[in-house]
């Protein structure tokens, strides 16, 4: 790097070098094999944004008017405004690390993508395995779009014109790539997409009642507490208190309603498979009453889901519970009981949020059911998973229901396969292991691994059947 | 790997940084020519709305209710405080409110009349420069995995 001119010229030169390095890195990904369109779309955005930044930096360096108009501090801000995109692009690029065919449950990706697009047209998904013990599922398109639209320059707006309206990024530990059952958590992310698309916050916000008296009491207490004088200077000012509680309560109510509604929609879409995946996921990574700005405690989320699963013909329940077998029923009853136990939250601001949100659980369920409509996984479908479980326990991929001779074949669907998988996983692993004829010392992990393999194979077969049908329809269409 | 909230905050900070930078340049042009360009009017309108939101955010706890607007106002209050503490010493709560109202009126005047006194334009420009840097700092912190900006844990402990 040739250092010349002022410090800001050096910053500009260094930034251009970072852009070139990023370009090289993006080129390395060009020739890799990915299981879906998602990674390529993201790669394309990164490359084009990098080009745009390079162009802007060049323009800034040559613009003499800017140097006259702005102070050095303001001019630096203009440069940093562009260079700060570089760590952002690196972050997007990090998704591609671990998104190649052999790093991912590639058999699951096309059918999941198909399902996703049935719920949210113009959507993409990227699966990325990471060397860390963390699952994350999140939608990135909305944030990217808003950022590029705020970026001011027309060329940035152009860059996201073709970007999918929903782009779900899923990261998971590389050691659990094939845990197809846990990947049911994608239903929650689809829920976020539907929440935004249908503007569900507009239905829920007017129903929220915030305890004004409690807020006032809290503010008075923290600004004028009965603390010894020596601690007074450590106390927050009125401005700090106003800022903190305003931000925390607003963000939490918004975040919690979004999460709860997405859970409820996830349940509508994937049925009990989502419930089981949620529980398995949550207890692995968070304690039961962990509350955050963005997420309510798992206990409250589980309460909502458990109530929705219960029997009933109201508009807030889906009624899967009566179809559980005895083992699953016992588990469900115990989780439901645990979820309905009231625990007071330690943080007073979260207590205020909880008091505002908890009374809306039924309304959240109702809103989610209404929004999911024809996408709801019906109890009749779930009822048939009993037959699929029998196939699975006998080490047969459950893609087709067994029918008497002469009857039409009944092909099952992705969600039913995953539901059957969960039920066997929870309640029939011993029988499954017996049918595998495994050495009894290997029963646990190995039989689970085999179950996941069969499920992945089933999903792959289902996808082949679906595509075969599509081709048949297309051929018939051209003949006519 | 960053989480959902960190990604959303990173994106939002970067977006706010761009808007702040555009506003600083628009005001620099006002200082030089004495006139707001037509194509920059939107920025000054946005600036006025931002300060209006800061004031609403400040008053929110007096009559709390949740809406899309209240969430924006809460964010604006936090962003304004972060920007102001970077460069300006605003000793008391009342001073803060007075200062924000002055900035809002200046933005309004420039938007409506195409200009304002040099002091007002400079004050506004100084704010948006500080605002830009505070957003840059926030984005940097997230990018360097120093965590998100949930800063009110101490407040709950005091309570």
What would a concise description of this structure say?
The complex is a heterodimer of chains A (480) and B (159). With 480 residues, chain A is mainly alpha-helical.
Features:
heterodimer, A: 480 residues, mainly alpha, 3-stranded mixed beta sheet, two-stranded antiparallel sheet, 5 strands, 63% helix, globular, B: 159 residues, 6 helices, 77% helix, 0% strand, disordered C terminus
The percentage of residues in β strands of chain A lies in: 5-15%
* Weakly predicted, low-confidence segments of chain A: none
Largest sheet of chain A: 3 strands, mixed
What is the ordering of alpha helices and beta strands of chain A?
Answer: HHHHHHEEHHEHHHHHHHHHHEEHHH
Quick one: overall form of chain B? globular
Please report the number of helical segments of chain A.
21
Query: What does the radius of gyration of chain B come to?
Result: 16 Å
How many domains of chain A, as an integer? 3
Q: Helix content range of the residues of chain A, please? A: 55-70%
Q: What fraction strand of chain B?
A: under 5%
How many distinct folded domains of chain B? Answer: 1
Query: Percent helix among the residues of chain B?
Result: over 70%
Q: What is the rounded distance between the termini of chain B? A: 33 Å
What is the string of SSEs of chain B from the N terminus onward? HHHHHH
């Amino acid at each position: 790097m040739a250092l010349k001119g002022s410090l800001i010229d050096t910053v500009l030169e260094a930034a251009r070098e970072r852009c070139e390095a990023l370009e090289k890195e993006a080129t390395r990904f060009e020739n890799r094999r990915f299981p879906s369109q998602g990674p390529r779309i993201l790669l394309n955005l990164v490359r084009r944004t990098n080009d745009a930044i390079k162009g802007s930096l060049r323009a800034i360096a040559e613009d003499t008017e800017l140097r006259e108009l702005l102070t050095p501090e303001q001019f630096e801000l203009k440069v940093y405004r562009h260079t700060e995109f570089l760590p952002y692009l690196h972050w997007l690029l990090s998704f591609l690390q671990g998104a190649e065919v052999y790093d991912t449950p590639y058999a699951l990706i096309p059918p999941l993508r198909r399902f996703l697009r049935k719920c949210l047209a113009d959507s993409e998904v990227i699966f990325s395995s990471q060397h860390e013990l963390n699952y994350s599922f999140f939608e990135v398109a909305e944030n990217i779009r808003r950022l590029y639209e705020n970026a001011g320059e027309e060329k940035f707006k152009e860059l996201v014109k073709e970007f999918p309206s929903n782009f779900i990024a899923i990261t998971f530990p590389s050691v659990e790539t094939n845990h197809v059952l846990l990947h049911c958590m994608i239903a929650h992310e689809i829920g976020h997409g539907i929440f935004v698309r249908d503007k569900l916050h507009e239905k829920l916000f007017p129903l929220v009642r915030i305890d004004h008296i409690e807020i006032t009491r809290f503010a008075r207490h923290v600004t004028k507490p009965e603390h010894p004088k020596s601690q007074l200077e450590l106390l927050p000012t009125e401005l700090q208190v106003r800022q903190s509680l305003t931000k925390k309560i607003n963000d939490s109510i918004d975040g919690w309603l979004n999460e709860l509604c997405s859970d409820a929609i996830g349940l509508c879409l994937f049925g009990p498979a989502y419930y089981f995946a949620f529980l398995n996921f949550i207890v692995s990574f968070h304690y039961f009453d962990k509350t955050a700005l963005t997420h309510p405690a798992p206990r409250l989320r589980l309460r909502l889901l458990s109530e929705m699963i219960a029997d009933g013909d109201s508009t807030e329940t889906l009624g899967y519970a009566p179809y559980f077998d005895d083992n699953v029923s016992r588990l469900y009853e115990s989780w439901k009981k645990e979820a309905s136990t009231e625990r007071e939250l330690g943080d007073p601001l979260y207590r205020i949020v909880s008091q505002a949100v908890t009374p809306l659980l039924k309304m959240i369920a109702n809103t989610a059911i209404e929004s999911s409509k024809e996408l709801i996984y019906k109890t009749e479908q779930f009822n048939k998973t009993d037959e699929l479980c029998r196939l699975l326990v006998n080490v047969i991929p459950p893609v087709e229901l067994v029918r008497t001779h002469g009857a039409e074949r009944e092909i099952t669907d992705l969600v039913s396969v995953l539901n059957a998988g969960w039920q066997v996983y929870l309640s029939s692993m011993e029988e499954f292991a017996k049918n595998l004829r495994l050495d009894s010392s290997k029963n646990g992990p190995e039989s689970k691994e085999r179950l996941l393999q069969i499920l992945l194979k089933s999903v792959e077969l289902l996808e082949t059947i679906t595509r075969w049908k599509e081709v048949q329809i297309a051929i018939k269409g051209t003949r006519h | 790997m960053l989480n959902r909230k960190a990604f959303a905050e990173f994106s939002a900070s970067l977006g706010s940084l761009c808007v702040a930078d555009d506003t600083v340049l628009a005001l620099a042009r006002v200082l030089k020519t004495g006139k707001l360009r037509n194509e920059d009017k939107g920025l000054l309108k946005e600036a006025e709305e931002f300060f209006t939101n800061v004031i609403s955010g400040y008053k929110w706890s007096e009559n709390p209710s949740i809406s899309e607007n209240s969430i924006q106002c809460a964010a604006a209050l936090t962003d304004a405080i972060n920007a102001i503490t970077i460069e300006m010493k605003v000793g008391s709560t009342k001073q803060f409110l007075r200062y924000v109202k002055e900035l809002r009126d200046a933005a309004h005047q420039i938007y409506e009349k195409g200009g304002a006194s040099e002091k007002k334009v400079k004050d506004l420009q100084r704010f948006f420069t500080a605002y830009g840097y505070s957003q840059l700092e926030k984005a940097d912190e997230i990018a360097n995995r120093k965590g998100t900006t949930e800063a009110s844990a101490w407040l709950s402990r005091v309570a």
